[in-house]
Amino acid sequence: xxxxxxxxxxxxxxxPLIACEDVSLSFGSVRALxxxxxxxxxxxxxxxxxxxxxxxxxxxxxxxxxxxPDSGRILFDGSPVDFHSPxxxxxxxxxxxxxxxxLVEDLxxxxxxxxxxxxxxxxxxxxxxxxxxxxxxxxEMVSALAVNVPAVDSRVRRLSxxxxxxxxICRAAGFSSRLVIMDEPTAALGVQExxxxxxxxxxxxxxxxxxLLISHNFAQVMRLSDxxxxxxxxxxxxxxxxxxxxxxxIVSLITGARID
Length: 260
Ligand SMILES: Nc1ncnc2c1ncn2[C@@H]1O[C@H](COP(=O)(O)OP(=O)(O)OP(=O)(O)O)[C@@H](O)[C@H]1O
Hints:
Elements: E1 18-27, E2 30-40, E3 45-50, H1 56-63, E4 71-76, E5 79-81, H2 86-92, E6 94-97, H3 109-113, E7 120-123, E8 126-129, H4 131-144, H5 161-173, E9 179-183, H6 191-206, E10 210-214, H7 218-224, E11 227-232, E12 235-241, H8 247-255
Parallel strand pairs: 3-10, 3-11, 6-9, 9-10
Antiparallel strand pairs: 1-2, 1-4, 4-5, 7-8, 11-12
Helix pairs in contact: 5-6
This protein binds adenosine-5'-triphosphate.
GO molecular function, one term: ATP binding
Keywords: ATP-binding, Nucleotide-binding
InterPro entries: AAA+_ATPase, ABC_carbohydrate_import_ATPase, ABC_transporter-like_ATP-bd, ABC_transporter-like_CS, P-loop_NTPase
């Protein structure tokens, strides 16, 4: 059963972009997920919170095609999906910004944006990388998101932590993705860089992306999200509209001081 959100009004009638229904997954004797049901509304930022080991990353990896649930199902835009790999999820429009960002330090920003999705130009049977087209498109992607990077031909090695995060978000937001999943996007950043990355995340929502955010930072969850789901010991123990809850209530759900 999906936990009802208290003030599910007319907006709740809209089809969720993602619905997890009774998703369970064990690793050997470890039951990482037990019948997890939750929904992500389209065009919103949903936060997923919980203590270490609660199952957040495992759930996100089921949505992004890294793991396949043992039971239960995941619906994307109303239809059940069975991703066999992250590429399957990406092809469907689900992008993940990993904690390690998965950027190549010695490549330029534009090369990182097009990693594994290079544009090619064909002359008869021969294909060439279309550097010019990729650089042009990279500039458009960067300026569309107002990403604060020096130039698209800068090497990633020269960028700050916040700028790297911005490049990774830009890559995830490009290529017509619909859901962008972020795992602790500001964990390694200072206050100013965190604020810039949070602006970017708001920008993604303003552009119509749906965002799923794992964060241990309650203040950030309260600032950024529209909805919060709480996990504890592999279970989803509740969901709240962010505007109608408090950090204290979320903490009590996480710790089990209050069970809804
Ligand atoms: N590949 C794996 N093999 C075995 N056990 C795993 C694997 N991945 C996760 N687990 C276990 O599943 C449980 C849930 O882990 P998960 O990483 O999903 O939690 P989390 O909420 O993301 O924690 P954190 O906030 O620390 O990242 C833990 O007990 C973890 O040890």
